[in-house]
């Protein structure tokens, strides 16, 4: 009866766990392995400058604003103690950093993670108003008129007209009549704006777009400019250098017709650098983003809805039951003796940070030194709790000492000794020295090596990245694990070590 | 290996998992554990129902009372100090005599009063208790064991372990201390275990460190064939202990005092499995047979007889 109950419960748990996982994988489409990755772009704008003494600092940086064909997965600002405001309106988005006083070299960062997303269509634009010809300065008006006339003669439509204008302006330096215009261009340092300004003379609607070519491992000093002209039906993009139509592939549009550009007040030696890098990211991150974007609540109740820091904590915590299963298996099926029931798991968790080899070395070092000190304290005949406290204090000091010495010797892994659970180490030392006294060193070593063996196996099991991924994306699989543990809980057969223990029975038939 | 597994199963050896799942979890109610885990309570219970136990000289319960230790033992040349919640024979200190101001321990060491008081302090702070909780130290009569065992023990006191299932004695063995076990009677610490024929009360086979042996490793005397005196009385005593605490699966440790006869030393709610090796006989068939019994005699003596009958049946 009791067995039936247990089997039924285990069956239901398995069914619930596997069913939910199947639903999430098949219907919702969560990838089954972490290897399913998508390409994402990391863009970083690095602003450096030297603050002028006694002047307030204001930094303005335009930000990408709903770029067509891309979605911003994540963005963050690294700006220490600067005040940060993000302004957004119809034309675009800018970040404004401000600080009343600063000294020396300053660094500000903006980082964005983008992924290609065809579903984000370019905004359909309303037909623009045809611009009035601007009032050109008296000395420039005839020159510009000449450029426009020449272009008109050599073109058939808006596009070719614009292309002719672009050609002329790019070649301006070698044409004597255009010297004045060139001067004007170099003063404004902005060819695209000038083009737009010139084109307005022919009442052609145009606008400037700025953005970055996404190429792996590239640095840019500035955003790239393109000119868009309205041909009566749609906006068409032209290269301002050679007049070629169309945007390069992998181009992210940062700003459209937005005059605000990067600027700094109250600083010298300012500079900005845009870096682009391509990385891979788990599809599941993007899936979550997508489902949220589509207004689905599917990922709202997953662990991915937690803050990233908490997520990382759970990535570790969800592996602990697997470690517990290892302990159950090693103790009840194999029959290995350990110090404390779950001490090996805690040691295994520490191994995650220290890595196995160093973990074992550091563990042996601390426990070995601890045993020596414990043997010394033994002579003082202290009561139990003060003695434990004394050993704990010494363990902490040992850990600090090991960290410092290892650091000096250049073994950086020595620093991670601080991640060992010191109370567990103390109890291990205490119990080991008691076992040593009562059952001899052989038994003490047997138990400590048993504990380490279980810790190592637990570590190896908990470090299988497929399991880590599966348990994090499908935490309901823990129900299956629970079912296995429950079933093992009623295992009443022999332990592997008992075959050895009862070996005398093998020799003589009963 | 699988052939061996089959052999083990056929010989009816109970493994640790089966003991825990089928017998301890099922027949031993958790609430009854304190009765046996606390040796002081066991002692009071036993005394109240007229079961013979080693006489209690005194109890030290708090650190402050450690100072009263010389007072407790002033009338006794020899005595035993043990933790009330100890397990596996840990923390037991046997004093066999005195020399000037010092106490002679069973292994020959001389201890100062300070040494002993430190030991008592350790007991009180829970060093030897199961969960590490604060403990009490018992100071009691040192058993002068029966001369029968003189030749087959090395210091320490041999005791007789009986497994009592549902009040019926199932298996017995005598545990003989060796030099290796440091006077303790626990098999895993190096004591010799010798199986006992339940009908005759004679020792049969012996094991040491899981190996069958014929002679005691330290004294060289033959172990098998020793007839234990008061055998039936001893079996009845073990059966009685079931009524005392109500645990279905119980280990009873009895010592034979040369003057006082069988004395119950302690009871155990989780008795070990080595008794099967000492007897070269698995217990599982016997235990399963008893588990199926619908009626069990009320009188302890009848249960002892039933145990002997079942033992005989199981032999063939």
Automatic annotation (TrEMBL), chain A:
The keyword Transmembrane helix applies. Keywords: Membrane, Transmembrane, Transmembrane helix. The chain crosses the membrane at residues 312-329, 357-376, 388-407, 413-432, 468-488. The keyword Nucleotide-binding does not apply. It comes from the Bacteria. Residues 262-505 form the 7 transmembrane helices usually fused to an inactive transglutaminase domain. Residues 23-184 form the Inactive transglutaminase fused to 7 transmembrane helices domain. This is Inactive transglutaminase fused to 7 transmembrane helices. The lineage of its organism: Bacteria, Pseudomonadati, Pseudomonadota, Betaproteobacteria, Nitrosomonadales.
Automatic annotation (TrEMBL), chain B:
Residues 43-294 form the ATP-grasp domain. The keyword Nucleus does not apply. Keywords: ATP-binding, Nucleotide-binding. InterPro entries: ATP-grasp, RimK-rel_E_lig, RimK-rel_E_lig_ATP-grasp. GO terms for biological process: SOS response. GO terms for cellular component: cytoplasm. The keyword Nucleus does not apply. GO terms for molecular function: ATP binding; metal ion binding; ribosomal S6-glutamic acid ligase activity. It holds the Pfam family ATPgrasp_ST. This is ATP-grasp domain-containing protein. It comes from Nitrosomonas europaea (strain ATCC 19718 / CIP 103999 / KCTC 2705 / NBRC 14298).
